[in-house]
Design goal:
Family: Belongs to the transthyretin family. 5-hydroxyisourate hydrolase subfamily.
Number of strands: 8
Largest sheet: 4 strands, mixed
Distance between the termini: 16 Å
Catalytic activity: 5-hydroxyisourate + H2O = 5-hydroxy-2-oxo-4-ureido-2,5-dihydro-1H-imidazole-5-carboxylate + H(+)
Order of helices and strands: EEEEEHEEE
Function: Catalyzes the hydrolysis of 5-hydroxyisourate (HIU) to 2-oxo-4-hydroxy-4-carboxy-5-ureidoimidazoline (OHCU).
Strand content: over 45%
Shape: globular
Number of helices: 1
Protein name: 5-hydroxyisourate hydrolase
Strand order of the largest sheet: 2-1-7-8
InterPro entries: Hydroxyisourate_hydrolase, Thyroxine_BS, Transthyretin/HIU_hydrolase, Transthyretin/HIU_hydrolase_d, Transthyretin/HIU_hydrolase_sf, Transthyretin_CS
């Protein structure tokens, strides 16, 4: 069985990014669309059936930062962050996002 999770941290405020829209796609098909909880996670994501293959996680970062009072330029430097990643087999894949209005980082977590 393969599972997937994500955790979004707002590095501008030093807190979890609660209320950010997250979308998971596979073969241009939406498998999940939801909003991060108070800890910056999408617990429902673990219940999605995933297999080996190429996936995309999209994070609506500009909408999140605007909703939290940040004044962003138009167009914003980062509107959506898209992470294209692959899963090769069974196991757990964790894709964290550390983000501010002007930069982000990701890695394969545990």
């Amino acid at each position: 069985m393969t599972t997937l999770s994500t955790h979004v941290l707002d590095t501008a405020s030093g807190r979890p990014a609660a209320g950010m829209r997250v979308t998971l796609l596979h073969d241009d098909r939406v498998l999940f669309s939801g909003v991060t909880d108070s800890d910056g996670r999408c617990a429902e994501l673990k219940a999605i059936g995933v297999t080996a293959g190429a996936y995309v996680l999209r994070f609506a970062v500009a909408a999140y930062f605007r909703a939290h009072g940040h004044i962003l330029p138009e167009p914003p430097f980062l509107d959506e962050v898209q992470i294209d990643f692959g899963m090769t087999g069974a196991g757990h894949y964790h894709v964290p996002l550390l983000v501010s209005p002007f930069g982000y980082s990701t890695y394969r977590g545990s």
